[in-house]
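Below is a complete specimen:
___
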Amino acid sequence: MSNAQKLVRDLQKHGIAAHTVTRVQLGPFKNRAEADEAMKKLRELGYSPLLAASGQ
């Protein structure tokens, strides 16, 4: 069992709604314009991207 799964089980035991999520990260990008271009392409492909600062 992974650490994430253990944490979810522990939180649920304490009545806190919790679940794991799989995510795919893109980048790093050299600048905001490069990140915006990638987001534009993703939207054109039907995805709903979320931009987060590095380390988030």
Observations:
- The two ends are 24 Å apart (CA to CA).
